[in-house]
Amino acid sequence: MEENVGQQVETKKKLSWHQVNEGIAFALGNLGHSAFYGALSTYFIVYVTSGMFSGLPASIANKLIGLITGLVVVIRLAEVVIDPILGNVVDNTKTRWGKFKPWQVIGSIVSSVLLVIIFTGIFGLAKVNWVLFAIVFVILFVVLDIFYSLADVSYWGMVPAISEDSHARGIFTSLGSFTGSIGWNGLTMVVVPITTYFTFVATGKHTQGPQGWLAFAIIVGVVAVLSALCVAFGTTEKNNAIRQAANEKTSIKDVFVGIAKNDQILWISLAYLMYSLAYVVTNGVLFYLFKFVVGKPGEFWIAGAVATVIGFGTAPLYPILNRFIPRKVLFAIGQICMILSYVIFIAAHTNMTLLIIGLILFNFTFAQLVVVLSLTDSIEYGQLKNGNRNEAVVLAVRPMLDKITGAFSNGIVGSIALVAGMTGSATAADMTSHDINTFNTLAFYLPLACSILSLLIFMFKVKITEKQHAIIVDELQAKLATGDMSISDDASAVTADVTTTVLAPVSGQILPLDEVDNGRDQQGLPGTGFAIEPSDGRIYAPFDGTIKFTFSTKHTFGIVSEQGLETIIHAGIDTVNLRGEGFTTYYQDGQQVHTGDLLLTFDRDLIRQSGYNDVVITFFTQPGRITQATPLVSKVIDHGDQVMQVTLSDK
């Protein structure tokens, strides 16, 4: 019987054919979406420096390049502040097609049309009146960025709308990230062939001219719109409680206040900022490296091919390596590879073999995965240190840092092209040794310094390792169990004695906390509550209430009853070390749940094979305010059976 139940739990984790189809449609959405972002964040500046002002005198063209570069930086930094507002616009949208899909389509169509207009040089307006050109450009680019952001916010907002459990949400997110890397790196492989071919068709010249760049923008825009339509017609938004729980948006002020209150978020963010700045700037200058230093723009596709192949290898390799190698070491390995790549880029000059080795090392990084996991673990650190979990802040930090580095990258890349003379119709033959030295200094020495700083900050200032996080979780749970910490901001709102009927969250053998085998010298667990040796791996809501939080490792969550009883439900002893493997949640933090709702499934076999006890512990975080609790009777129970009645005083 127990084996059958376990099989049922495992079945719940599998995606249905409908979900598979939705996953494919959702993944295709990010293919064009990421390609569009690559065109806007990387190749737009290349177009500005080489083709937008073709036909204008060099002095005027360079001034306009500097002006546009500066305007793009300012506009993209402003986007960081605007994003939460756009999130609210999407959340308040109500149509028969849902709230996300309309903005997917509208955002992609409008931004794609505007991208094409901008890649025409705004129909040559700069040649007529450069002041008017600058004004019109600002308006068009701001509108483009707003509609692109609406498409971006609505795309990732689709994840909880089309999936109801953490396992499925993780798969959809991974699929989107996978196709996103194809869209981004694929662009690198096709940009030169496309721009060269269409320039040749229009002019008979084998170069990347304005005509080729316009064709490139049209193709990217069409792909982005088609990808958005795949999401619109291939997915179904579900109007469920999970979506309704995820409406809170984080302002830029919230992010910075949250960072200031949690030193580990600060140091992790700073390390990632240095890494991201180096990574994005280098990706932005690789085209200039191949065109003006190596003199082989036609072989630029190699950079995209290397990034794609290495990316496909490192993503699935990370969880395997992390079982044996701490993530701090993996971060260091990636950063050392990046540092070595810069040494090769500086020394290689025109040696293609060395450049390929450098590209391999440059892309062999686990930084993003390590940073995401470290930021997530910093949630429990902040809760233990100052009582603030900062979950919304953590979710917003990395996207915000990506936008900031993207903005600065546009400015840095444009400045490098100007200072090194890599603008207009210039070729590799026009480059002097001074130009190349200038290029190397700004394009490689500066990112090299950033990558070294990233390594030093992460190694010496970031303290949250997997082992340290497990210790933090133990300390946090001990504080919660003894009542030294609350899980609810309105814990004092109880104005009279109230009683909550607590039902069994899982089926099995019930026993007091002091009889639990905790795997240590001393028997039992602290706190007020009970434990159940489970007969299956499903945990249900023990009463009507609200989910307050979930530990980053998904093995523990906090729930507060409608009467104000704060409760922690913990699956297994020392299961924090599984890092979320084998646990699937069926709710969103902040969601109101009802008695008997399925909240969590866990893999009992995995827990026991890993050497841990799979006992399910339920304890109350306000032991000092509990005036009465029904005595426990040790027996076999089913989930939903009454375990005890707990009376909470107003003092």
Written description of the protein model:
The protein has 651 residues and is α+β, with helices and mostly antiparallel strands. The chain contains 19 helices and 14 strands. It has helices at 2-13, 17-50, 58-91, 101-119, 121-128, 130-162, 166-203, 210-234, 241-244, 252-261, 263-294, 301-322, 327-348, 352-363, 367-386, 391-419, 433-461, 466-481, 604-609, and strands spanning 498-503, 508-511, 528-534, 538-540, 545-550, 556-561, 566-571, 583-585, 592-593, 598-602, 616-620, 626-629, 636-637, 642-648. An eight-stranded antiparallel beta sheet has the order 9-5-6-7-11-3-2-13, with no helix packed on it. It has a three-stranded antiparallel beta sheet with strand order 1-14-12, with no helix packed on it. Strands 4-10-8 form a three-stranded antiparallel beta sheet, with no helix packed on it. Helix 2 (17-50) runs antiparallel to helix 6 (130-162), helix 11 runs parallel beside helix 16 and helix 15 packs parallel to helix 18. The longest helix is centred in the first third of the chain and has 38 residues, at 166-203. It starts with a helix and ends with a strand.
